[in-house]
Amino acid sequence: MNDQRFADTLKRKLTGLSTPPPESWWADIEAALPATSASPGKPPRRHIPLRRRAWWAMAAACAAVAIVVASIVALQTTDVSTTAHTNSRPAPSSQSLTQQLVQAIEEAKTAGDALSRQQTPLSAGREYSPRTPGETEMPLTAKAAAEDSEAERPQTAAPTAVQEAHETPARPEPHAFANPEARSTEPQGADDAYYERSVSRPATTAEATTPKRERASGGKPAAQLYIAGCTAGRESSTSAALAPYQMGVMQSDNYIAAESPKQHTSTTNLHEKHLPPFALGADIAIPLAGRWSLQTGVAYAMLASTFTQQLPTRVEHQKAHFVGIPLRIAASVIERRNWNVYLAAGGEWEKCVAVHTDQPAPTAPERPHQWSMQAAAGGEYRLSPAAALYLETGFGYYFDTSTTLRTAYQAHPANFSLKLGVRFSPRSK
Amino acid sequence: MTDKSLLQHIRAGEAGGPKMLYDRFAGMVCGVCRRYLSDEEDVKDAVQETFIRIFRHIADFEYRQEGGLQAWIARIAANESLKLLRAATLLPTGSLEENIEVTDEEIEDMEQLSPEELLQLVRRLPEGYRTILNLYVFEEKSHKEIAEMLGISPMTSASQYCRAKRLLLKMIEEQRAAGVH
């Protein structure tokens, strides 16, 4: 009974109570009044109070930032170009590009030391010049005649001669090669071309399997060595045919990688392109004290990737589907009756549930787990007292899980993402 | 000049009409806004928005009886004030606040306060309490309607109203004990 009296008393006392405003308030209201009848075509100038302008400005700024980030995410792709140096046979066509890429990366890691060791002879080979600047090439016959005098030399002298051919010519100073002018005095001949070819691996298997003799024909130093070796050693034509291989073995240090005619190298140029992940989610927000809440739920993410091999040309499209459970703390920054802007931080566990590719693979792709830490900023619009639609942009770091599945998570562990979803707030009705 | 004549004066576009309307109802509008809003800047914003909306839609208002214009203006003022309030200040509660009966002495204490003093005490209430108190007492909304307006549960609305009532009565008692009245 008294409860009603309380309400009635309060209403009676305060209804119609007049508390005059300051005189200055009318000026602002008058400035924002609708157009008078004297100027009906003039649209009314709406006065937006400063505090409401500030809130709208903040909301507009947050929306602008979200749009800019979303645009960057949409336009940005992770493009990783990986040049695979493999000493093995070219991968069979049944092997997927992703598997090739993973294999290439692993081989590159393990071959790092080997490459560095071989760099030293290479650098030595680069410094070596089979002839001094200005030296003319001896005619074949003259060279043969000169070395016929050494015909009694034992077979073993041949390597010596070869070594002498390597060593005796005055080597130009290394800086000569570094000096463009010095190099330019020498015509760009087969010397450089030969070494260039040996530096950049043969692009095709055919070129790699070409006998050394043919390969050496394009470069003067190799031709000279070949000739000197076969003549000094008194080899027959048969052995001459073998000489290139012998020469190849002796010259093996001068190549980037140990090559034998039976072993061919292949250059595989693999590119991978990953689109930023796009996620959908259904969350529950459990209110905590004040503006804080605990968010969890279910999230789905689709990671699209494209792998391109240049030689031979192959393109493989991959879509990996992840389902995850996020768990994070959120704080409302701006709150209104129907919408609010928030910040959130936490982690997520995801499981790859499906991987689809347009190229057949001999083995089923791995479907790994994925852990990540995330921070996000977003806005939500309340559809009902219990449900809200949200859009957020987030930054996440995806931990390495040593998986063979190649996605944006592995290629670019730190990346942005865009998420759209529905969030439920448990409330008693 | 009656409210009806004033309306005709304004609709005719005659000079001074808007100022006359402002002078007649600005105090009442301020009183309504100050019941909802404790911050004076918010009150100013709400008052300005109220009169802008009044003059924008005054041509659509249908005058039926004396007092109708004041009620219409008061309703606009209440709506504009609610727009500036943040629903997040209303903390959901898990259980209904125990409704302690108001005593006769408390009612008498309330009666002895002037309207201005009572208004000041209402303005000192937390924002959430104050909002629900206004909607329930002055706008005569049900707790279900309040819940739908504010995005809370009816249980929360009822609980917040009980707390508002209890706190207001406590402040009245403290003010009386302090000898201000």
Distance between the termini of chain B: 38 Å
Radius of gyration of chain B: 18 Å
Q: Strands across the major sheet of chain A, in which order?
A: 3-4-5-6-7-8-9
Structural class of chain A, by secondary structure, is alpha+beta
Whole-number tally of structural domains of chain A: 2
Number of helices of chain A: 15
Find the CATH topology of the largest domain in chain B. Answer: Butyryl-CoA Dehydrogenase, subunit A, domain 3
Order of helices and strands of chain B: HHHHHHHHH
CATH top level label of the largest domain in chain B: Mainly Alpha
Shape of chain B: globular
Number of E-type strands of chain A: 9
Key features of this structure:
A: alpha+beta; Porin; 2 domains; 15 helices; 9 strands; 29% strand; B: 181 residues; mainly alpha; Rna Polymerase Sigma Factor, Chain: A; Butyryl-CoA Dehydrogenase, subunit A, domain 3; globular
Architecture blueprint of SSEs:
The complex is a heterodimer of chains A (429) and B (181).
Chain A: H1 2-14, H2 25-31, H3 50-75, E1 78-86, H4 97-110, H5 112-127, H6 140-148, H7 157-167, H8 174-178, H9 180-185, H10 190-199, H11 205-209, H12 212-216, H13 220-232, H14 237-250, E2 266-274, E3 278-287, E4 292-309, E5 314-335, E6 339-357, E7 369-382, E8 387-398, H15 408-411, E9 414-424
Parallel strand pairs in A: 3-9
Antiparallel strand pairs in A: 1-2, 2-4, 3-4, 4-5, 5-6, 6-7, 7-8, 8-9
Chain B: H1 3-11, H2 17-36, H3 40-57, H4 68-84, H5 104-112, H6 115-123, H7 127-138, H8 143-150, H9 154-177
Helix pairs in contact in B: 1-2, 2-3, 2-4, 2-6, 3-4, 7-9, 8-9
